[in-house]
Design brief:
The complex is a heterodimer of chains A (about 400) and B (about 210). Chain A is an alpha+beta fold and about 400 residues long. Helix content of chain A is about 40%, strand content about 20%. Chain A has eleven helices and 15 strands. In chain A, strands 1, 2, 3, 4, 5 and 6 form a six-stranded mixed β-sheet that branches. Chain A has a four-stranded antiparallel β-sheet with strand order 12-11-13-14. In chain A, strands 8-9-15 form a three-stranded antiparallel β-sheet, covered by helices on one side. In chain A, helix 3 packs parallel to helix 5. The longest helix of chain A is centred in the last third of the chain and has 47 residues. The N and C termini of chain A lie far apart (about 85 Å). Chain B has about 210 residues and is α+β, with helices and mostly antiparallel strands. The radius of gyration of chain B is 20 Å and the shape is globular. Chain B has two domains: about 50 residues, RNA polymerase II/Efflux pump adaptor protein, barrel-sandwich hybrid domain (OB fold (Dihydrolipoamide Acetyltransferase, E2P), Beta Barrel), CATH 2.40.50.100; about 130 residues, K Homology domain, type 1 (Ribosomal Protein S8, Chain: A, domain 1, 2-Layer Sandwich), CATH 3.30.1370. Classes of the chains: A alpha+beta (about 400), B alpha+beta (about 210). Chains A and B meet through helix 1 of A and strand 12 and helix 3 of B.
């Protein structure tokens, strides 16, 4: 509550105007009641990262995965896990406190989590490696970058877009006991995408007046004025995956049914937008790969697979993933080693005395080579200032 | 004293970013130049420290005009303020003048002008207020009238109050006109004069 004063409050003028304009079916940003704002979906350089811009709202999604023992050993030994984490940066809105999630932050995480998990959108069984021993734990991080209203919808789209492009490393089970897990590097075997059955799209409605004025995708200002809010998570098949109506004004059941119909239309729209964005990213990525192939063939990196030894250690999974990155670094080393050798050759020349020794026994040609060396080897400031003829004289004196 | 005028910086009225060298002082002797916001002297050069348009007021005043979302108050600016702690009036919008501003205390506003009369400064009733950047509010206040307001004013009648703090208040008889004017202003920030006129005409056509 300490930061409560930082929450933006509308002025009397804004509140009155937004309400009165809505009475005559007008929204302050010129949209119609059931229009979404402009939606932009872009992706990062790595698989599984997305950035979604919905009007002024910006959310970044980032997906990672780890090999862990199954969360609920007994009842779900052959299912992976999916967890949503949210990060509300104070940069997005001064009312957000760092490290202390507010009510809205928790609600956002839960609504998205419910929409994704309860509807079984991501196939969990395909994330199992060894039943009861190793499963993939998928983690979705949602960073709120700018709060322009309707964070839930934007964050949900960001999560879906990131999950759609995420690829986990392939792993095989082998060894004598059939329990040894080998995690293959991305260079050796192509990483595998998640199995996503459908895209549950969150559509948020804001209610004004006595619940009889409904708008979709409320802005920051509309959220500050609205009487109530409902988020319906619907997929493009028209299945309702989740509904969230937390407090606010009561709404007639007929209005809710109408909202659900609108939501399914909007969900189809958003789904196609996400699909086209993901496809565009996939083709771009594929094209890049084709171009890069000859270079990677000639440089032939020998990446060894990471084999996990069963120690019965709980944290084994996370350790092995860390070693994976070590192996990658080592494999790239050969080129670095060559460079280091070059440096060692050049090193003796760096000392001033050695170059001078060379020039004392000099004919004209040797002086020229000395000059060439000067360009290559860094000199002290003293040399730079001293005029050349003076330096020569000193050398002559010495000899 | 040399009678020759200092040559103005080549970057005047163009976009500069931090680190850009505006002037080389070693080539100018016995001359005085005055530098304002967003510039600093570094040995023999004048460098930009913030991104924005480099401006020159002849003969020798330089400053960088940048656009921000947050406003740093300075005395004698006219701003749009919101009442926060006077009980019955909380949330009222006022058009006021900054009378005290420093980095430690909250700024002080007054609805009296420098002569002690409350002429144009008053609370604003009705209408709609929105936040823009300081750059846009400066553009709206500039004279001659900026192209958006001119184009809008030819077709529509509306009241407008612009604060240096980036807040803009618009009022018109019909709510649809208020929305049109406010959206036209928000969209105009990154447009050139001609683009602004075309945009306003397109908006007006869509409505009528």
């Amino acid at each position: 509550m300490a930061m409560e004063h930082l929450r933006w409050r509308p002025t009397v003028n804004e509140r009155d105007f937004i309400e009165s304009a809505l009475q005559s079916d007008l929204r302050v940003d010129g949209r119609r009641s059931f229009d979404f704002r402009r939606l932009d979906i872009s992706f990062g350089r790595e698989d599984g990262s997305s950035e979604v811009q919905l009007g002024e709202t910006r959310v970044m999604g980032y997906v990672t995965a780890q090999l862990v023992p199954p969360y609920r050993d007994r009842d779900r030994p052959n299912e992976g896990t999916l967890a949503i984490f949210t990060e509300f940066s104070p940069m997005a809105d001064p009312a957000f406190e760092p490290g202390r999630p507010g009510e809205s932050a928790i609600e956002l995480g839960r609504v998205i989590d419910r929409g994704l998990r309860e509807s079984r959108a991501v196939d969990m069984e395909s994330l199992c490696v060894v039943a009861g021993k190793y499963v993939w734990s998928v983690r979705v991080d949602l960073h709120i970058l700018d709060n322009g209203g309707n964070l839930i919808d934007a964050a949900n789209i960001a999560a879906l877009a990131a999950l759609s492009t995420f690829r986990r490393p392939e792993c095989t089970v082998g060894g004598e006991d059939g329990q040894q897990v080998t995690v293959h590097d991305a260079e050796v075997r192509d990483p595998i995408p998640l199995t996503i059955h459908h895209l549950p799209i969150a559509v948020t409605f804001a209610y004004f007046g006595e619940g009889n004025i409904v708008v979709v995708d409320p802005t920051y200002k509309e959220e500050a004025v609205m009487g109530g809010r409902m988020t319906a998570t619907v997929n493009s098949n028209g299945d309702v995956c989740a509904i969230q109506k937390a407090g606010g004004e009561g709404v007639m059941s007929s209005v809710i049914m109408q909202c659900l119909r609108i939501a399914s239309v909007k969900a189809a729209d958003v789904t196609s937008k996400i699909r086209t964005a993901v496809e565009k990213y996939a083709t771009e990525k594929a094209l890049k790969k084709v171009k890069r192939l000859p270079a990677s063939m000639s440089q032939k990196t020998n990446v060894s697979d990471v084999t996990m030894v069963d120690k019965g250690d709980d944290k084994l999974g996370s350790q092995s993933v860390e070693t994976l990155s070590d192996v990658q670094q080592i494999s790239k080393d050969p080129s670095v080693v060559i460079e280091a050798n070059d440096h060692e050759d050049a090193k003796p020349m760096l000392t001033e005395s050695s170059t001078e020794v060379k020039t004392t026994s000099s004919s004209g040609a040797a002086v020229e080579s000395d000059e060439a060396q000067e360009i290559r080897s860094p000199k002290s400031l003293k040399d730079a200032i001293k005029p050349k003829h003076k330096r020569k004289k000193r050398k002559d004196n010495r000899s | 004293m040399e009678s020759k005028r200092p040559p103005p910086s080549a970057l005047v009225d163009s976009y500069v970013v931090p680190g850009d060298i505006i002037l080389d002082l070693s080539e100018m002797t016995n001359q005085t130049i005055k530098i304002g916001a967003g510039l600093r002297q570094d040995c023999d050069t004048i460098q930009a420290t913030s991104a924005g348009m480099l401006r020159l007021s002849k003969p020798n005043k330089y400053w960088v005009e940048s656009s921000h979302k947050s406003y740093i108050p300075s005395v004698e600016d006219t701003v749009l303020g919101v009442v926060v702690d006077i009980k019955p009036d909380v949330g009222t919008l006022v058009y006021a003048r900054v009378v005290k501003a420093n980095s430690i205390m909250n700024p002080e506003l007054s609805c009296m002008d420098a002569m002690g009369k409350s002429t144009e400064f008053t609370d604003l009733k009705g209408g709609y207020m929105f936040d823009t950047s300081t750059g846009l509010s400066r553009m709206l206040l500039s004279s001659p009238t900026c192209p958006v307001l001119e184009a809008l004013g030819k077709k529509l009648s509306f009241e407008i109050a612009v604060g240096m703090n980036g807040r803009v208040w618009v009022n018109a008889p019909s709510p649809s006109n208020v929305i049109l004017v406010s959206n036209a202003i928000i969209k105009s920030e990154s447009l050139s004069a001609i683009q602004q006129k075309v945009m306003v005409e397109n908006l007006l056509q869509r409505v009528s």
